[in-house]
């Protein structure tokens, strides 16, 4: 059986996504990650189209790729010319990659309207360019642009493009759903028909405009294509390309294809997130397989079954793609949810039905007031610890705090000043903090008051702050929920506070954040 090529186009088609802009260094880093995942091919960009892509191919020669072969992407030669004299084709050779992927027209209206040439000349462009590149020692893949729409309009011509490319020496002809409008049954029919009529080795390249890019890619492979293109996290023009990790996971874990070594697929979640860091696009939590929520369970009924056997509410083992099961605590939790969450946090709560029932009730009561524990694991862990140990973990005793804000003048911005009085390490501290707003001032004052007793707090940094008005019908009287995320440079945690006053809500979240952070660093109350 022919092995299926796994062909990644994150660096070319993925980079066509709105708002995604990669430097040469970013592209090199992503290429190294893709190689670690074990993909067969990395399409690096279009040499000659812009200086960045040209530079990428120059520097990519220094990459020590263990698995992947690099592909340079570009178009067939210009109409009316010859491939050997075409500067764009020469730029593809100058990229010095083992593989060149050519985009070619296969839709008659595109040939006539976009390329403004004859159908015969388009075939000549395909033939000449493929032959020239093969003659120069390159493996050539041909992306037949708008293939499916073109096949519907004029199947004979679309087929002729496939035959011409294959006869000229293209190893693979990838059928592209460029406008992303196809549905799986259409893809199945067309791929099957083209395979029968041409005998060419076919590939598939899908866009997600109908939400079917992954399904269409899987359908094409099941219909006989043996080369699949996609991008990490489904990046790409408009609604994106087929998400390569989802396609590969589906083919490998559900249909038995042997595409990536299992130990590499088990890095998929890490890779997806590492690439999100580079693209600076927040990972999509509900992404299949690798999203943070892909195996997160909120409903109590689910948890009660998962406790017995995780397979009962999971379509696959999350570890196969490097993910893990999580239990969410909320007002939809039951005793089993708390027991499972406790297990995640290192507490064995089995056989403690009264404690479990008490925690369920506390959570439900607090959620009614606006708390949302599934977004603030650290606040839940402190609550659970309190219920289990029967005591409040306290690193400092607050005596009072207050904050004042001067009115803003045109000549000088508003200034806030907070005063915090507390006892820590057996000593009373009174500290004043200034800030550009009340939240900032409170943060400074609390840190200053604790600096002597807990120098570890110096490393804690606020990295996210979210405010939500809970009962908006009351306008400025509304209850407010503040969620904050804090980092110590190695890990991060989320805490929350709910109060009528936004600064008070922040204060609750901040105290919990410092308490949790110190606890996790193994610091004893002083
Ligand atoms: C379906 C896809 O996503 S394919 C990938 C598309 N990616 C990109 O377009 C990103 C990179 N592109 C670019 O930087 C530029 O468009 C370039 C450098 C390639 C070309 O720029 P320009 O020379 O200024 O041309 P422009 O972008 O206006 O038009 C594209 C030209 O390529 C021609 N062309 C389009 N497809 C093909 C093809 N398969 N084979 C040969 N020529 C083609 C068009 O007819 C047009 O020709 P014209 O200049 O005679 O009108
Ligand atoms: C080649 C390509 O990116 C497309 O047809 O969508």
TrEMBL record:
- The Enzyme Commission number assigned here is 2.3.3.21
Keyword list (alphabetical) reads: Amino-acid biosynthesis, Branched-chain amino acid biosynthesis, Isoleucine biosynthesis, Transferase
The answer to whether UniProt assigns keyword Iron to this entry is: no
The protein's matches in InterPro entries, at most eight in alphabetical order, are given as:
2-isopropylmalate_synth_dimer (IPR013709), AIPM/Hcit_synth_CS (IPR002034), Aldolase_TIM (IPR013785), Citramal_synthase (IPR005675), LeuA/HCS_post-cat (IPR054691), LeuA_allosteric_dom_sf (IPR036230), PYR_CT (IPR000891)
A Gene Ontology molecular function term of the record: 2-isopropylmalate synthase activity
Q: Describe the location of the Pyruvate carboxyltransferase domain by residue ranges.
A: 4-266
Catalysed reaction(s) here are:
pyruvate + acetyl-CoA + H2O = (3R)-citramalate + CoA + H(+)
Q: What is this protein called?
A: Citramalate synthase
Q: Which organism is it from?
A: Luteipulveratus mongoliensis
What lineage, starting at the top, does this entry show?
Answer: Bacteria, Bacillati, Actinomycetota, Actinomycetes, Micrococcales
């Amino acid at each position: 059986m022919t092995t299926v090529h796994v062909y990644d186009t994150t660096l070319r088609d993925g980079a066509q996504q709105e708002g995604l802009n990669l430097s040469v260094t970013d592209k090199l880093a992503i290429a190294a990650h893709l190689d670690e995942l074990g993909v067969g091919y990395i399409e690096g960009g279009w040499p000659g189209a812009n200086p960045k892509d040209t530079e990428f191919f120059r520097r990519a020669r220094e990459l020590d790729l263990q698995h992947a072969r690099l592909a340079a992407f570009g178009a067939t030669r210009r109409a009316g010319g010859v491939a050997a004299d075409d500067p764009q084709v020469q730029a593809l050779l100058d990229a010095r990659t083992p593989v060149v992927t050519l985009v070619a027209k296969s839709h008659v209206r595109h040939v006539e309207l976009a390329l403004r040439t004859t159908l015969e000349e388009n075939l000549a462009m395909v033939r000449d360019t493929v032959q020239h590149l093969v003659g120069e020692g390159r493996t050539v893949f041909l992306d037949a642009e708008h293939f499916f729409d073109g096949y519907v309009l004029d199947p004979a011509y679309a087929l002729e493009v496939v035959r011409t490319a294959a006869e000229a020496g293209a190893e693979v002809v990838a059928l592209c759903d460029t406008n992303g409008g196809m549905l799986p049954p259409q893809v199945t029919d067309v791929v099957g028909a083209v395979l029968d009529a041409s005998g060419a080795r076919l590939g598939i390249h899908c866009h997600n405009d109908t939400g079917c890019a992954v399904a269409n890619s899987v359908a094409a492979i099941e219909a006989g294509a043996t080369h699949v293109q996609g991008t990490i996290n489904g990046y790409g023009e408009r609604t994106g390309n087929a998400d390569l990790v989802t396609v590969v996971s589906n083919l490998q874990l559900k249909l038995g294809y042997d595409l990536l070594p299992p130990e590499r697929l088990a890095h998929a979640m890490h890779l997806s997130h590492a690439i999100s860091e580079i693209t600076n696009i927040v990972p999509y939590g509900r992404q299949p397989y690798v999203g943070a929520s892909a195996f997160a369970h909120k409903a109590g009924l689910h948890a009660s079954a998962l406790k017995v056997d995780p397979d009962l509410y999971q379509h696959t083992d999350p570890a196969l793609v490097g993910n893990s099961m999580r239990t969410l605590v909320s007002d939809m939790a039951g005793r089993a949810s708390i027991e499972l969450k406790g297990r995640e946090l290192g507490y064995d709560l089995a056989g403690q039905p009264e404690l479990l029932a008490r925690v369920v009730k506390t959570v439900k009561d607090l959620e009614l007031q606006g708390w949302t524990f599934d977004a603030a694991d650290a606040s839940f862990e402190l609550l659970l610890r309190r219920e289990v140990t029967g005591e409040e973990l306290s690193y400092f005793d607050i005596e009072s705090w207050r904050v004042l804000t001067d009115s803003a003048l045109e000549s000088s911005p508003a200034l806030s000043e907070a005063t915090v009085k507390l006892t820590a390490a057996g000593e009373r501290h009174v500290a004043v903090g200034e800030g550009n707003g009340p939240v900032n001032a409170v943060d400074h004052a609390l840190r200053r008051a604790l600096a002597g007793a807990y120098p570890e707090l110096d490393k804690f940094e606020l990295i996210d702050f979210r405010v939500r008005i809970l009962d908006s019908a009351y306008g400025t009287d509304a209850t407010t929920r503040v969620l904050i995320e804090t980092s110590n440079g190695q890990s991060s945690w989320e805490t929350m506070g709910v109060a009528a006053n936004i600064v008070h809500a922040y204060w609750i979240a901040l105290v919990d954040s410092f308490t949790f952070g110190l606890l996790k660093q193994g610091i004893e109350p002083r």
